Amino acid sequence: MSSSKRGVNWNAKEDVVLCNAWVTISEDGAIGINQPGETFWGRIHEIFSAQSQIPRTRDAIESRFKIINNQCSQWKGCVRKANATLRSGSNLDDLDLHGFQS
Known about the structure:
- By secondary structure, the protein is mostly helical.
- The chain has one domain (about 10-100).
- The chain is built from 4 helices and no strands.
- The protein has helices at about 10-25, 35-50, 60-85, 90-100.
- Helix 1 packs across helix 2, helix 2 (about 35-50) packs across helix 3 and helix 3 packs across helix 4.
- The longest helix is centred in the C-terminal third of the chain and has 27 residues, at about 60-85.
- It comes from Cuscuta epithymum.
- This is Myb-like domain-containing protein.
């Protein structure tokens, strides 16, 4: 049998901590996104590690964020598509329902 190197599944709380860390580092006026990738993700890892009870590597954090970012981009595309087809008198509830039905 082979041993799996897969870690513990991510949970919603960790996703929120990760996204908040990403925003904190991205919006740092002194440095922002104009820093090497290793430094950028290293700083995110530091913030995440201080707030999470489950240890994660820098690579795991970067990989998870890419998944979240991809899913958010897909959602944004659905909302744009749905918004383009909204009829007069529709509201945000209609947008969400319509966007995910097609």
